[in-house]
Structures are given as structure tokens and as C-alpha cells.
Amino acid sequence: MPYSMxxxxxxxxxxWKGDRKKWLEPTPQGTADIISTVEFNxxxxxxxxxxxxxxxxxxQQEQENKIQSxxxxxxxxxxxxxxxxxxxxxxxxxxxxxxxxxxxxxPQKNAAQxxxxxxxxxxxxxxxxxxDKRPEGYNLKEEDGRYRDPTTVTTxxxxxxxxxxxxxxxxxxxxxxxxxTYHINSISINSDYETYLSADDLxxxxxxxxxxxxxxxxxxxxxxxxxxxxxxxxxxxFHPNSCNTFVYSSxxxxxxxxxxxxxxxxxxxxKLFEEPEDxxxxxxxxxxxxxxxxVKFSHSGRYMMTRxxxxxxxxxxxxxxxxxxxxxxxxxxxxxxxxxxENDCIFDKFECCWNGSDSVVMTGSYNNFFRMxxxxxxxxxxxxASRENxxxxxxxxxxxxxxxxxxxxxEISVDSLDFNKKILHTAWHPKENIIxxxxxxxxxxxxxxxx
Amino acid sequence: xxxxxxxxxxxxxxxGKIYNSRVQRGGIKLHKNLLVSLxxxxxxxxxxxxxxxxxYLAGPAGSPAMPPPPPQQQQPGEPAAGPPAGxxxxxxxxxxARAAWPEPxxxxxxxxxPVTGAGxxxxxxxxxxxxxxxxxxxxxxxxxxxxxxxxxxxxxxFPEGPRGTRRQCGCPPGAEDRPGAPGACPRxxxxxxxxxxxxxPPAPPAVGPRKRGAAGVGGGPAGGPASGSSPLKKPRRNSxxxxxxxxxxxxxxxxxxxxxxxxxxxxxxxSGLLRKSPGGGREEAEGEESGAEAxxxxxxxxxxxxxxxxxxxxxxxxxx
Lengths: 451, 320
Known about the structure:
The complex is a heterodimer of chains A (451) and B (320).
Chain A: E1 16-21, E2 35-40, E3 46-51, E4 55-61, E5 75-82, E6 87-89, E7 94-96, E8 102-105, E9 113-118, E10 123-136, E11 160-176, E12 186-189, E13 195-199, E14 203-208, E15 211-220, E16 233-238, E17 245-250, E18 255-259, E19 271-273, H1 286-290, E20 294-297, E21 303-307, E22 311-316, E23 325-328, H2 337-342, E24 352-354, E25 360-364, E26 369-374, E27 380-384, E28 394-395, E29 400-402, E30 411-413, E31 425-428, E32 434-438, E33 443-448
Parallel strand pairs in A: 29-30
Antiparallel strand pairs in A: 1-28, 1-33, 2-3, 3-4, 4-5, 6-7, 8-9, 9-10, 10-11, 12-13, 13-14, 14-15, 16-17, 17-18, 18-19, 20-21, 21-22, 22-23, 24-25, 25-26, 26-27, 31-32, 32-33
Chain B: H1 2-22, H2 30-49, H3 96-99, H4 126-144, H5 173-177, H6 187-190, H7 214-223, H8 225-228, H9 233-241, H10 245-268, H11 270-276, H12 281-289, H13 297-300, H14 304-318
Helix pairs in contact in B: 1-2, 1-10, 2-7, 2-14, 10-11, 11-12
InterPro entries (chain B): IER
Family (chain B): Belongs to the IER family.
GO biological process, one term (chain B): regulation of cell population proliferation
């Protein structure tokens, strides 16, 4: 159902409520359960998260309670499985991290669900299926599997299915390996639902979901002389409707749109989206903060959104020379870039997402803040995902960061922001106002409060 | 002045990041290291483009050569790390020639790095080179400064203060004659057994075809970088400069010592870096082909020839 933030009166902002789902206790190492990706499936019923330890946890939305129709179902753990394990490349003496970089769902075609998950080097297609019945009454086997003594078999019976407790199984159906020299940063499923692309720092490959032993290279920006390397690919995505079109973003802040019909190797872009740099903002770190960390098409396919370190930009695919909208996420950090460079925060890769109707965009920030921007009303809101809001149905209070000057009550000064608490991954339900926000170890799911 | 210190700080931080990336799990992250190298280049531009004379990075009067990097950081098969040149070498005892140089101010400063303009590459003996450099610096200093305590003139407006010590690099003449020759300057000799190694020789702002956005980066940083550095840092720096040369020298010593270690690891294992690149053998071949341009660490401390070679060296950091 389409949703838009109400405009006009200042107290009519939607309120968000929700609760925290701590789905795994921290491992002894303490870092393996850092969430690294969050993704709703096409219906929104399932929510997948990947973590640094290579695990995938899938949440499922409860069926709506008919009595309490104003409240949508909660999300509970549906399946957990180990998707990737750490590997070692003996040839190059490199360890390959098991961290899940991206998860993408396939549209559902039958009873089972399919998703692609990838680490730095290998993409896997997983089938998640339910089993709620099992056959019983074998002639030659006992119920526990032991074989019966054939001499004791005096009658024949037909085994029947009997209900059992629901069991969700995940099995790897395809493994797409050995196609990437550099670290995979993106996967994107084509609208033909048969092919998908995977992108690393310098190359983009096109795969068929059924074929694992080869892929086509469609973009290669590796220079002949690596000393001349000036930019890398940071994200790539297929257009939601045109199966021949995809975009990829670069560390230089440019986005290239490519048409696979033009040539087999899409090194020459069809469109180049780039905004001229503001010379007054030039600094040592201009290049870093202009690097695009995420690119997402709108559901309509007319727009795309890019996230760089300080801002979110909306581009109209028909206009290449500048974005149509720019939203500052945390401009107060511009004067802190040197410190952020020192503590590596400047390299954080924030993601962004659209709501179902493309009217609101969301992205994360520090101090467990996340931001929403309403494109129609031009209003924005800052919310916090924290333990204080742990109680279910707690309404989130808008936050404000005081950039300079006198700090008002309830405002937070820039210097007291916790840069270890960052929200890099957020996802918005494709149809409803339900959002998933990942802090370092925790997943928060918020719904808007329908009055 | 603060910009220069800030730039130097950023340089050492960047080198630390690049170094740490080699031991990080999951292999070298190309994207992050590319960004770090861009920052490194920008900072280096600022650092070198400043005509502010008399900038020193003090270090202890220590051994002339850098200690070799810790063995565990060397990968098997890499060339043994020779004493590096380049940034932040601890200065050896002042050579006798220096005593002959006039010192205009009663400051514990040593001759600054040569300000290379359009650059006559000093050829011939080290002493001539140093003297010519010193004269240039002198001239600049006299033009720029109004006094010992006055701020340095020029477009940067860097305030004076106790500075680190810059050392002259002593490359044997042979290296200077053939600037492009790899290995013409043996690392050991170049790295300043007889003479202190020079800290980054100033380079013209736009260096090399690989400069990206030269107008922006090269021209900008002289005035620009302050916007990038945290304003909180400045007061801290200033207060550290006050106590005098010794304290600043001590601080700089630690920094430069650290930087020097990193340089040695980078310089010596440059081809090792390339070998480690995920691209494998191809990059290594390319690295060696361009070895004529790829600076041996020793060549960095030369004047003009090194300036040309420094650029590929820094771009080589890019090319993991």
C-alpha cells in the first residue's frame, strides 16, 4: 500500500516504534556477530541478515493478528545457517574472510525460497525450504532408521506422511566461485530472474543462475599498468525493469550506466553521472568522502540514489550532470574529517534504501542514529536505535545533533557522538512501513504507528 | 606551518594504514588503500609545495642508517630491506660541511631542504648541491621572513616555530647523473651513511601526468588543507610548539622514526607489494618494467632526479 509521510502540521510526523532483536549472543571473539548485510525479500515476509562470521539468519513475519489488525506481525527467527567459512588461498597466501558482504533474494517461484549470499570471493545460491511432514511407516526400516530384520516383516504397508514440527532447511544449490580476483562488493539479480551480476573492485561479471562454471566479464576497469589505478568500482546494481541496464558507482563519485545491448564488454558507459566538485570544500579528504558507498535504483526505475560519506543524492536517470536532490546526512562531520580519517571511520560504507513508494529514503549514521528524508515534504528525521528503546512498542523520539553553538536540551553535541556505534545497513519493507536497522551487533525492527 | 605539520601527520598516519593493511585479515583492500594513497599524495603535495624555509623534523642524532624493519614483517622472497631514504630519517651527526654554512638565525635549525623550483638539478658533489640548496633557501627565507619569530611569509603564511630537522640527502653523484636508472643509487650509500637523508624534497605542485585534478589538488592544498584538518587539532599543535625545540623535536622524533620504519618497509618491499597484488604476476612484471621510473628508496633522497621518481613511487603505493 502506498505510504507517504503526512505533510503540513509539524506534529503529524509518523512515529516509529519497535523492538530490538538480539538474535545471537556474542561469540567469544566478540566480532563474529557483527551484522554485515540486511535484506527483505520481495514480499517482505522474510528478512535476511548476514554477519561477519559467515552466518545468515532469516526472520519471518508472523501472520497478522486479525484481532489486533493495526499491528503487523512480529519478526521471529526462521532459519539460521552457516553460509560461508573462512578459506585460505594458498597460491597467494591470502586468507579469505567469511564475512557476508551482500544477500539478495530471488523472487519466489515455488514453495521454497532462494537467496544469493556472497563473501569476498564466492557467491552461493541457497535454497530455504520448509519441512512440516515426514514419511512414516517404512517396511524395511524402523522409525529411527535402523533396518529391520527382514524375517520380521510379515505385512506390507504404504508409508504415509505425518505432520511434524516445522523444520526449515537451508541447502546450498549453487556455488559460484573463482571468478573474482578482487573483493566482491555487490551482487544484483537481473529482472529476467535468470542472470545476476557480481562486482568486485575492478570487474563486473554476469552469471546465469544455473551455470556455475563460467561467467561473462562485462566491465573491466583494471588499467594495464596498475600504477595508473585511480578509481575502483564500489557498487553495482541492475535496473529493476530493464534487463539490459545496470549501473556501477566508483570511488571517484561517478556513476556509470551501461547497456548490455551495446556491446559485450560494457567498458564504455552509456551515461555518466557526475556532479562537479565544490571547490570551496576541497580538503585532503575530498576524494575519500566523494567515494560512493552504495547505489540503489528506485522501485520505479526512474531514479537512483547514491550514498557518499556525508550525503545522499537522488539522480534522475535522464539527467547526468547533477543530482536532482541532495540530502545532508551529517554535515557536522565535515570539520572532523581528519579525526575520522585517523580512526578509520571515514572509510565506513553506509548503505541507503528506498521505501516502497519511493517517497522516503533512509540511511544510517553514527551514535546509532539513522536518518529518513521525505522527498515530497523535504522533511527529515533522525532516530536512534538503542537499548533505551528496547521495550516493544516504544515510540522513537526524534534526535537532533547540535553542530555548533549553544546546545539545546535533548540535543547531542557532535563531540559526544559515539563513532563506534554506527548504522551501516538498513532495509525497508517493500510494501509496508517496516524498517530493519542494524547496529553493530543488534537488529532493530521498527514499524510505524498507525493511529 | 601548521598545514605542514598536519600534512606530515597525515602522511605518517596514511603510511601506517597502508602498512597495517598488509597484515589485515582478508588481504589487502584495494579500495581503502587507493583512498589512503590519494590522501597521502595530497598531504605530500602540501608538505612539499610549501616554500616555507627552515622546516625541520627533528630526530635524534642517531645512526645514519635506518634500522632494518622487523624481520617478521618481511615476506619471504622479498628483497632485504635496506636502509630507506625519504621521509623521516633520523638525522646522522651533522657533517662537517654544515658548519661552513652560515646560519642566519640563532635557532637550532639545520639547513632546510632545497627548494626546487623549475629546478636546476644539482649535479656534482654533494656539498655543492647542499650549498646551492642552502643558498636558495636562504634567499627565500630572507625574502619571506621578517625575523626570527616572525611568521614565514609567502602565500602559506605558516607561522614559524620550532621545527623538525631536515637532513640533506647524500646521494653519490652517480645517481644524480642518471636520474632514471634504477639501482644507480645503492640504497645503503644513499641512505645517508655520509650524509643525512633528506626529508621529502619539495616538488612542484603539479607532478606528473598521473596527477588527478592537478589544479585542484596541487594548487589547492597550499591554502586548502586546513579545511580538511580538524580545527581541534590546531590548538593542540600550537601548544606543543611552544615549549620549544626540544619537546617538539622529541615528538617529531617519534613520528619520523615511525615513518622511517614504514618507508623502509615500503621502499624495500616495493616489488614485494606488487607481488602481493591480487593480480599476480602481471603487476609484478609491470612494476619491474617501470622500475626505471619506480624510485629505489635511495633515489628519493636525491634532488631533481628523485622528484621525478617520487611520483611513481607514490603511485606505486596505489598499485597494490
